[in-house]
Amino acid sequence: MAESHLRATSIEGKDVRLEVLSENPAVLETPQALLVEDAVTPVSNLFVRNVQRLPAGVTAELLPLQGWTFELAGLIDRPVPIAGEELLGMDQVEYEMVLQCSGNGRTRFSEMFPVSGVAWGHGGIANVRFAGVPLLALLEKHDAKIGREAKFVTAEGKDLRQRLEVQEFEHSLPLADCLETSILALKLNGEPMPAIHGGPVRFVTPGYYGAMQIKWLQRLRFESIESTNFYHAVEYRVPKTRVRHGEAFNFTLENSVPTWKLRISSLILDPEASVVLTAGDHTFRGVAFNDGDAPIECVLVSFDRGKSWRSATLQPSRSRYAWCRWTIQKSLAPGTHEVWSRAIDALGRAQPLDASIYWNPNGYQWNGVCRLEVRVV
Ligand SMILES: Nc1nc2c(c(=O)[nH]1)N[C@H]1C(S)=C(S)[C@@H](COP(=O)(O)O)O[C@H]1N2
Ligand SMILES: [Mo]
C-alpha cells in the first residue's frame, strides 16, 4: 500500500506529482503543495476517484456531447429522453465548490483501527468551478411533472461495473436539494468537462461529497425511497449511532445515512508536512469549508497542542460552497511544534478535537482538527 503512494501518474493532462493510489480504476491523490497557490484548483492538479470505469473516460481529453443522451425516469409523468446538446442552448449556473471524496483522510481513521477502502491521505480534495444547467430548468423546459411521492433523485453513471458481483455506480440524493441546486454540469473551471472528471455531462450538487457528483450521466430516477444499489445502500454510508472501533456493522437503509453533506473541516496547506523551518516569524496558510449551509465563522489555530487558540485571518468567502482561505502569523523557536487548525461555522458546528468519535468501518467523512508537525532549527 505504502509503495503505491510513491508512484507518480502518467495520465495525460495530469501533473506528474499526483500520487497513484490505484491504476485501474484510476485513483490519484493531490499532494498538498499542489493545492496552496491556486484559488481554484486547476484540472492538472485535481484528484481523481473512479470507482468504476468508462473505457473512453480514462484521460483528461473530451468526450463529444453530440450523441450523448440521458434520461429522466421513475416517478415522473413520462420518461423524458434528453440529448446532451440541448443543454448548450440553456442558461448555465456556476458554482465554485469543494469537491472532496468521502474517504478523504481515511488513513487517520486507520491509525485508530484499520478501516477498508482506498488509503487516502488528505489529498482527495479540491476547490473547483462546475457550470451547467439547473435540473429544475430542464424539468420546466420539458414540462415534466414529478410525482408527489418522489423524495429522492437517483443518478446513474454510464460506467461499467468493475467486477461481476458489484452493481453499476449510482447514488440517491434528497429531491428538495436537487431541485434547489443540482446542475447537469458541462464545464469544469470554465472549460468543457474532461472525460476523466465525468464529461460530457455530470450530475453535480454543491455541498455534497464527491461520491454524489455522478460522472457520465446516464439516467436520473425520481423515487420515493433511496436506491438499494450496493454503492448507495451498503457502501458510502456511516452508521447513525456510534460503533466501537473495529466492530462489524451490517449496513441497512435504516441504521445508516449516506455520505451526503460535507462535514465542516479545515486543512493546513502551507508549510508542507515534513518541511524544516528556520526559527523566527512564519505565515501559516490553510483552507476551511463546510456544506454551505452556514458561513465559516472562524478558524482557531493552536501552537501548543490545544492549550490556547488564536483566530486566523479569514479571506472573504468566494462562494458559500467554496473553501475559504485563512492565514496566521507565528514566531517559532527551535524545536518540534504542532500546529492545529479547527474550523467553526455560524451554526456552531466545529471539527472534533478527537475524530475517533466518528470512527466508522469504511473510514468515511474524517474531519478531525488538522494537525501539522513542524521542526524548527
Ligand atoms: N459515474 C461515476 N461517478 C462517480 C464515480 C464513479 O466511479 N463513477 N466516483 C465518485 C467518487 S467516489 C468521487 S470522490 C468523485 C471524484 O471526482 P473526480 O474524479 O472528478 O475528482 O466522483 C464520483 N462520481
Ligand atoms: Mo469518493
CATH superfamily heading of the largest domain: Oxidoreductase, molybdopterin-binding domain
Q: How big is the Rg?
A: 21 Å
User: Count the strands?
Assistant: 24
For the record, give the distance between the C-alpha atoms at the N and C termini, rounded to a whole number.
33 Å
Mean of the pLDDT scores?
95
> Approximately what portion of the residues adopt beta-strand conformation?
25-35%
User: Any idea what the CATH architecture of the largest domain is?
Assistant: Alpha-Beta Complex
Instruction: Assign an overall shape.
Output: globular
Helix coverage percent of residues?
under 10%
Which hetero compounds are present in the coordinates? ligand MTE, molybdenum atom
- Count up the helices: 5
Unreliable parts = none
- Looking across the biggest beta sheet, what order are the strands in? 5-4-13-8-9
CATH topology of the largest domain: Sulfite Oxidase, Chain A, domain 2
Count of the separate structural domains: 2
Given the helix and strand composition, which structural class is it? mainly beta
Main CATH class of the largest domain: Alpha Beta
Order of helices and strands: HEEEEEEHEHEEHEEEEHEEEEEEEEEEE
Please summarize the sheet with the most strands. Answer: 5 strands, mixed
